[in-house]
Amino acid sequence: MRVLVTGGAGFMGSHFVKYLLKNYPDYKVVNFDKLTYAGNPDNLKEVEKNPNYVFVKGDICDAGVLEKAIKDNKIEAIVNYAAETHVDRSIMDPTVFLRTDIFGVYNLLEAVRKFGLKKMVQISTDEVFGSAREGSFTEDSPFAPNSPYASSKAGGDHLCRSYWVTYQTPAVVTHSCNFYGSNQFPEKVIPLFITNLLEGKKAPLYGDGQNVREWIHTSDHCAAVDAVLHQAEAGAVYNIGSGDEIKNIELVEKILKIMGLGKTMIEYVKDRPGHDRRYSINHKKISQELGWKPKMSFDEGLKATIDWYRANEWWWKKLKSGEYLEYYKKQYSV
Ligand code: NAD
Ligand code: DAU
Fold it and tell me: Of 23, 31, 164, 264, which sees the most CB atoms within 10 A?
């Protein structure tokens, strides 16, 4: 198969590019990425010279460049990881979120339609369902997004649904819980806490630290998207979750314990506006219909992630300077 992975230079997209090249040696994988602050060619060093790998620098909002990449490479399917993804940035300036996460998805759907591609997998989030007071979200739960990020992702998901119903454009949407693992930009909570602590700085915990997130390791998420790409029927929606729900305070305490540090390294800071209290995903449907199950335990995955950041300062040190540092200073008035 010839697959266009959009956003393949980011955190999860780069894991999926490497996963496809390793597990499907006869596939051609085209990574189409704008290289925003979150797109990092360092994530792909090990596959740069693979003859089945092609990189195209491009914006999913630019139909001309997108269509050329599809035509030139005879693309059959698209997996869309390209997005603006950080909730705090969306609160500070939603503009680019609306552009990429809604208009970009529209462009992709138009291209799938125009070229008659076999499938488009839209990688989306549990945040479109809002905060879970009790129980877990199913694929049929109503959308109730609470941040500009979540509402722009919801817009993209609605477009996928409407293109399937109206034009039979073969889009499939996934709603996933929080990803973690190596190569995650150090603005997201796990790499932010680990790298701060490695630098001797404190871990800034929002609000009362009681917010709950469900965590899935990169390896499990790649296997889930593999199942969706190859087995899901057009128009389907799948939740991807792990069952590993944890309060932020427990998360930081686990990280501190693994790193041999004390609780004095926690700094309570002002809360995120509109901060969702809890996310929780019911992933029965993907397990029953596609036979996928998460394998990595959170404790094992978290330890491996900390080990990776410890061993790969070259990767993250430079990301904690320049534009990122300016953003961080503004956020925490440090
Ligand atoms: P990321 O922020 O690490 O990377 C996003 C990538 O998209 C970057 O390489 C960036 O350069 C690229 N990109 C941004 N705008 C683009 C555009 N207009 N055209 C082309 N490329 C563009 O992302 P991530 O955290 O790995 O998330 C990947 C996807 O998974 C996103 O769609 C996100 O909404 C979804 N998701 C993320 C999580 C999570 O915990 N990180 C959980 C559930 C769903
Ligand atoms: O649930 C899936 C979503 O997970 C994805 O769709 C998003 O793209 C991804 O960014 C992530 O969103 P969150 O807002 O859950 O992730 P973040 O890492 O920003 O925050 C996780 C939790 O940690 C959240 O409750 C806020 C808290 N937090 C975050 C930061 C950055 C802190 O306590 N301190 C921090 O410095």
Answer: 31
* 126 belongs to the catalytic site: yes
Dist. CA 135 → ligand 1 center (Å): 27
Residues in the chain, pLDDT under 50:
332-334
- Is 127 in the active site? yes
Q: Which ligand is nearest to the CA of 210?
A: 2
Atom in ligand 2 nearest the alpha carbon of residue 127 = 1
Question: What is the pLDDT at residue 334?
Answer: 38
**Residue 44 alpha carbon to ligand 2 centre in Å:** 24
All structural domains of the chain: 2-183+215-245+277-298 (3.40.50.720)
Tokens of 193: 């806490």
- Cα of 8 vs centre of ligand 1, distance in Å, is 8
The radius of gyration of the chain from alpha carbons, rounded to an integer in Å, stands at 19
Q: What string of DSSP letters covers 239-287?
A: EE--S-EEEHHHHHHHHHHHTT--GGGEEEEPPPTT---B--B--HHHH
CB of 130 closer than 6 A to ligand 2? no
Amino acid at position 135, single letter: G
What's the CA gap between 272 and 88, in Å, rounded?
7
